[in-house]
Amino acid sequence: MFAALAALAALLAAPAARADQQQDAGLRSVIERAIAQAECFPDRYESAVWFTMMEPRLVKRVPDKTERLEILRTVFCEAHRKGEMRLPPGLVMAVIDVESRFDRWAVSYAGAVGLMQIMPFWPEKLGMQRHQLTQIGPNIRMGCAILRYYLKYESNNVQKALARYNGSVGRRTYSDLVINSWSRWNGADDLGLSASTAATPAAAQPVPKSPGH
Questions:
Q1: pTM for this one?
Q2: What stretch of H or E contains 167?
Q3: If pLDDT is split at 50, 70 and 90, which confidence band does 130 have?
Q4: Domains along the sequence of the chain with CATH
């Protein structure tokens, strides 16, 4: 157990393989705002539909029910963050699936940590502790803020935004994996489109559509 913890600590301390990954100039203020606004309140009926559809799909990947429900609640809540461009929750699930297979303890070769593989320099910049990257709420909150930032940057071009998220600009392997996974997690992406939680920028920029729409 001690050896495993030591190995995790070493990985967390390791420098990122790509110096440009998640270091765009405007990201800090975006993530700081997301962390400060830690709670959001989705429509109860629509969140119930979301849980009913997605919970059975997640059972094999996340056997612990409490953890499974927290992941689903946080994804739906962050995808519908009030005052922000709405994210398709199925896309967020696909990013988590490809990045970590829903393992909140996952650490990449580049040192990215947790469900949405957040780079380890972010906690220090935000006055947080590194262990918070393995916590479901903070990790998904930061990941959604980063994904939303890149979608806006790329005018809702999902492939380009995903490439920036992953640090693989100019290559399609990662974005194709996420988009293929998205088709397995869709079915509830239209929830919340007319709700008050829909983002203001959505009027000018259509919300990305899932495969098959």
A1: 0.75
A2: none
A3: confident
A4: 20-201 (1.10.530)
